[in-house]
Amino acid sequence: MSEGQTSHKSTNSSTLVPLGYKQTEVGVIPEDWEVYYLWEIGKFKNGLNKDNQAFGHGSKFVNLMDVFGVNRIISTEQLGLVECTSFELTAYNLRSGDVIFVRSSVKPSGVGLTAVVENDLSETVYSGFLIRFRDGGFINNAFKKHCFYEEGFRKRVVGSSSVSANTNISQDSLKKLSIPLPPTKAEQEAIAEALSDADDFIVSLEQLIAKKRHIKQGAMQELLTGKKRLPGFSGEWKETSLLDLALGKKELFDDGDWIESEHITTEGVRLIQTGNIGIGKYTETDIKKYIFEASFLALHCKEVHEGDLLICRLADPAGRACVLPNIGETKIVTSVDVTIFRPPSSTTNKIFLANMFSTGEWFISVSDRSGGTTHKRISRGALGRLIIKVPELSEQTAIASILSDMDAEIDALETKLAKARQIKQGMMHNLLTGKIRLI
After folding, report:
1. Dist CA 68 CA 294 (whole Å)
2. Nearest Cα to 130, choosing from 149, 113, 153?
3. DSSP H helical segments within 18-170, as ranges?
4. Do 8 and 178 contact (CB within 8 A), yes or no?
5. What kind of architecture, by CATH, is found in domain 238-390?
6. pLDDT tens digits along 334-348
7. Residues 179 and 162 sit within 8 Å (Cβ to Cβ)
8. Cα dihedral sign, 390-394-395-399
9. Among 102, 135, 417, 435, which is disulfide-ready with 113 (CB 3.0 to 4.6 Å)?
10. pTM listed for this prediction
11. pLDDT tens digit string along 100-154?
């Protein structure tokens, strides 16, 4: 610590502070915890910049994308290569316990993300888009995987960043960031263990969901092509076009409305856009769009109803479809790049079709008939002429029921995963600020 500089600690506040806690610039923490500037407990170093011709051979190289989405680096197997001098290998090496900060990101949410080096990476250097933090063992290595992701710290990182073409943070800004730390390595380790257990549970759920999705994909491949028949069903599947399934009627196979930006508002008639059409399922977006009631009348818009099969004609991918669920709106319209498909329920199960319109074979057939350069799309006419094979309604319904049960199981697991992630965030806030003590 330089002369004249001191660790910042308690601050006076009129806020009622619980017994055994103190008010600091990062919030209320236990009395025996301390708040440190990062420059007090470690040193920073920007990464290595090289010309393009230096890449593809030489030493292992941790790049920007090797850090995104992970909180640790344990292997060099998937890393790229860069030509380095012996001085560069020494100056930009990575040791166990080093923390790598993302220096630049397209989005603010990506700047300052970290990954902890868990092993000494022999003859491995790191990119100029990254910043190395080396604390010399002041912080428990397992604790490092979590403490830099605590919500308050992340807000301080983003608040200290600058924006040009990308969002950037400098090592000078990182040095000035503050972080609360428990007084002992034992407490740091206990917190890290609890959060790692939560991470392990989340990973197990993610793996189970991936397995269930893989099983469903296999079932779709067999059931939607007739390769595997359910007990009690036989006979040839019928070749037909989408327009034939709609009895050739425009009102059963029609596009949404051409709605310009001046008609869009924040309340009124709900507007379903292409972004709401997921692969086999409806997807709600963060921002809901509406149009004026007057626009609905002036444009003679078509209403969309619960149970309609919506097919997006615009990539990516074109041809994706979903059955509209009950989304809690009294009046709904959709955009012109969405086809509203209403085949008669007496001959067609729309859940069956939505699943069929989620297969790789379907997307290939749509892509083959799509046009455009910047934005690939298929015309409604070309979409209506696509030929598919369908069984009798009873078999469609049986297949749809099986696939729907699989979807329900996956949805339940995804809800459980979302809850687990929410609980983990709460744990991080409580444990990494000392609100809850483990020892």
Report:
1. 46
2. 113
3. 38-41, 86-91, 141-147, 151-159
4. yes
5. Alpha-Beta Complex (3.90)
6. 999 999 999 999 999
7. no
8. positive
9. 102
10. 0.83
11. 999 999 889 899 999 999 888 878 999 999 999 999 888 999 999 999 999 999 9
